[in-house]
């Protein structure tokens, strides 16, 4: 089973987006091959919940980050090779028994486009195989266990008699004669296509790992240390949002003794941004990718649900409040099955009146606090609920994002502090914008 995450959470955290600058996927999507892009998307769509798999992937990316190596292949090679391999129609198979004079005439007149594409595909494929063998030879003796384990089957394929015969000599001479082209075409496209696809898949994964390593190096992202689920640790230092050009970093420690964060702060103080940054770090850590932080240690979780930008479901007749209730029910049902979760609610029960919001916030947060194996971050403007919860629950940590006043202008620090805010600046912002003057 993989890490549990749904579309609402992916949308809340901006994991996938058409805008590369604000998409977490877009930040990491600097791969060189279409196959690499496909595998990267698969990894982001299916985060891991296995500590050893997470560690293995993280180790590989960390190795390439330290090595500082560039991807040793040209994208154009793969375009030609993939186009060639995609056509399995036996009618395009090159035969050494064909009329040689007819073929020579067509080649002379440059009308045998199909044959030339096959030649080009074979040449590109051989070039890729040779570049891979050279690259792996340069890594020999320096590869970590995870890289050695994944490269061993590939090295075995490249060293087999059929593949070994194309590893030496002039590449162009391999397809100089029709008989030679026919032999290689049969070898690559038909009798050994599974081995060829296995080698290409290995290269595509190299593309993902090396690209991720380069992104992490350029942006100062770090390897997250994965721990077994039973330890119930979540310790992040210097956490920041990866899409911001000048982010403010914060520390966050959550565990079994303090598994609920009750977050308050004025409008625009940065609550939503902080919660998104936390969720993104948890997500990337379970993908096995570097995270936007100074350090991170985390116990592997079963999954994560967020409710940050919950839309009304007008097509089904749902008000915003009822959409919140339905979302909360989904989370509750999941917590009944998977107790080791991360749950983030931004401004819980904003869709109802203040009295109901207070009662519901206290009741739900108190219930969350009893599920010690899971982690919860709840933000709210109902600060009175915080005082009630403080008297009832000993495992809730109260944090707020402060606002400093400079005259009548609020200034936001975006740095977490212990406690419950007293800041109320909604009317001040309305007055500063001159809205009442305009209306009057």
Explain what you see.
The N and C termini lie far apart (60 Å). Helix content is 50%, strand content 13%. It folds into two domains: 51-218, no CATH class; 222-439, P-loop containing nucleotide triphosphate hydrolases (Rossmann fold), CATH 3.40.50. By secondary structure, it is α/β, with parallel strands linked by helices. It has 17 helices and twelve strands.
Number of strands: 12
- Determine the number of helices (DSSP H or I, runs of at least 4 residues): 17
> What number is the mean pLDDT?
88
Question: What is the name of the CATH architecture of the largest domain?
Answer: 3-Layer(aba) Sandwich
Order of helices and strands: HHHHHHHHHHHEEEEHEEHEHEHEEEEHH
The CATH fourth-level homologous superfamily of the largest domain: P-loop containing nucleotide triphosphate hydrolases
The CA-CA distance between the termini, in Å, is 60 Å
Rg is 28 Å
Largest sheet: 6 strands, mixed
């Amino acid at each position: 089973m993989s890490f549990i995450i749904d579309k609402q959470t992916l949308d809340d955290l901006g994991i996938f987006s058409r805008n590369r600058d604000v998409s977490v996927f877009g930040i990491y999507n600097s791969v060189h091959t279409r196959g690499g892009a496909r595998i990267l998307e698969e990894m982001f769509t299916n985060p891991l919940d296995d500590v050893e798999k997470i560690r293995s992937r993280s180790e590989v990316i960390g190795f390439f980050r330290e090595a500082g190596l560039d991807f040793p292949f040209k994208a154009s090679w793969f375009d030609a090779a993939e186009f060639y391999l995609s056509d399995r129609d036996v009618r395009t198979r090159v035969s050494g028994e064909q009329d040689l004079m007819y073929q020579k005439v067509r080649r002379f007149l440059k009308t045998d486009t199909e044959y030339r594409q096959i030649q080009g595909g074979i040449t590109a494929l051989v070039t890729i195989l040779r570049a891979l063998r050279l690259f792996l030879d340069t890594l020999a003796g320096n590869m970590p266990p995870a890289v050695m384990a994944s490269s061993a089957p590939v090295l075995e394929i490249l060293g087999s008699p059929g593949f070994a015969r194309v590893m030496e000599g002039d590449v162009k001479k391999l397809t100089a004669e029709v008989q030679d082209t026919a032999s290689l075409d049969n070898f690559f496209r038909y009798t050994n296509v599974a081995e060829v696809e296995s080698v290409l898949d290995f290269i595509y994964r190299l593309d993902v790992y090396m690209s991720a390593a380069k992104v992490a190096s350029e942006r100062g992202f770090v390897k997250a240390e994965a721990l077994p689920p039973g330890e119930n640790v979540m310790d992040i230092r210097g956490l920041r949002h990866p899409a911001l050009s000048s982010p403010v970093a914060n520390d966050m420690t959550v565990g079994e003794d303090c598994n609920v964060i009750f977050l308050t702060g004025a409008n625009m103080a940065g609550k939503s941004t902080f919660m998104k940054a936390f969720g993104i770090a948890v997500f990337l850590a379970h993908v096995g990718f570097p995270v936007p932080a100074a350090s991170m240690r985390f116990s592997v979780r079963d999954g994560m649900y967020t409710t940050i930008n919950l839309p009304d479901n007008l097509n089904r007749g749902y008000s915003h409040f009822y959409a919140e209730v339905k979302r909360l029910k989904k989370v509750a049902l999941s917590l009944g099955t998977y107790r080791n979760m991360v749950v983030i609610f931004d401004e819980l029960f904003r869709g109802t009146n203040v009295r109901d919001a207070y009662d519901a916030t206290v009741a739900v947060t108190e219930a969350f606090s009893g599920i010690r194996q899971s982690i919860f971050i709840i933000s709210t403007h109902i600060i009175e609920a915080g005082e009630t919860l403080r008297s009832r629950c000993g495992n809730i940590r109260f944090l707020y994002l402060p606002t400093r006043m400079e005259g009548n202008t609020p200034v936001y620090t975006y740095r977490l502090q212990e406690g419950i805010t007293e800041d109320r600046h909604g009317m001040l912002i309305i007055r500063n914008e001159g809205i009442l003057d305009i209306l009057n």
